[in-house]
Design a protein that fits this description.
100 residues, mainly alpha
Length: 100
Amino acid sequence: MTILLPEINRRWADMFAALAAGADVPPGQRLRTEGLMEAAVLVGEATAEQLSLAMDACYRQAFGRALGADFGDAWQAFFPFPQIPAMARRAPVYPSAPAQ
């Protein structure tokens, strides 16, 4: 086994742990990990389906629920492989001016 799959898993774990704690994830971190995921498929280390299942397991570990629970059962239609659904929670928005 190469270091590619463990590195991908480590990056997922880091991203999802940060998001679960309320922090944000820099886009570059997500994009580089997506590139590693694509590389893993290209060199035959894993299939897209295997990586999606492994990513779901990392997500479950951080959030206590599946990706499908937060993004819907068809989450991969909106986030096709190798996209990682790693977005921070929406910030609360308060009006800056009184309502008229």
